[in-house]
Amino acid sequence: MAAVDFEKGDKTMAFLKSHRLPPSPQNYTLAYIALFDSGSPIGRAIQEIVDEGYRIKQEEVDTIFDRHGGAAIYGLTDKAQGQRAAHLRHQTIKLGELASSAADATGAFARELTQEADHMASDSANTLSIVGRMIEQSQQAQGRLTEAMREVKELREELEAARNDAHRDELTGLANRRAIEVHLAELAEAGEPRVIALCDIDKFKSVNDRYGHSVGDRVLKLVAKTLEDICRPHFIGRWGGEEFIVVMQSDNVEAGVNLLDLARHELARKEFKLRETDEPMGLISFSGGVALAAGGADANAATLKQADQALYRAKSEGRNRILPA
């Protein structure tokens, strides 16, 4: 039996302790990768923070974990979203039954009217009473049916909105990680070549640490808006944290590099100031890596890795640049 390497476990726990992180499965996993697989995307993201002398925070660990698909490791899902959708489906079924009941009542009215027809003809004294009762039953059934259909319509709209929300990044309004993966899978299935560009805001952690997360959120929205303005109609999403993605249905990597360069120059033209003091924040920039995917779903994963490696080279060569894979 191979010897168990407790030393790595001890070092991992020491890393968590030094950064004041609880030893949860997620934190332990990321700490282990940071220490023993530092060249991986997760390892580089953590090292970029700690190499600058900062203590990594829990929210940063959560962001890195989410950005690199960490939820898939534990099979996590958006429980709240799932519960909401299940509740809406239940309500739709319930209201459908109500609509069916209202329709049954309308049918019962027709049958009862037929049965009462002979009495109405032979006993005119009761005619008005019978007709009045039938009209009242019809109106009640119609009212229940109308109300049921109104509520069904509202719930369908709410379900559609919830479905859209599940694929939309709340802060920037861009497509989120889930929507990005769906889009890439659809292109792969259709056999469409696609140029994938990953871009990451330069020194974003220092923005958050110096000015606070509210300013950081404004920077994220500014970069998202710039990418939208320049890169539409191509697909644009927030890959996670301060990282964005642009997907072009093309096989022209050079065109992808030029497009991201145009967005980068447009961002550099914008003057970003603090609202409270009107103090200029200086240059807001991003670095990017661009790669070509041609083939099925496996090509997506390989190309994302290539784009990430090109992005890392852009960072290491001085930031604020776009490089092809």
TrEMBL record:
It is an enzyme of class 2 (transferase). CDD domains: GGDEF. One of its GO terms (cellular component) is plasma membrane. Residues 192-325 form the GGDEF domain. Its EC number is 2.7.7.65. The keyword Coiled coil applies. GO terms for biological process: cell adhesion involved in single-species biofilm formation; negative regulation of bacterial-type flagellum-dependent cell motility. Residues 138-172 form a coiled coil. The keyword Transmembrane does not apply. It comes from the Bacteria. Keywords: Coiled coil. One of its GO terms (molecular function) is diguanylate cyclase activity. This is diguanylate cyclase.
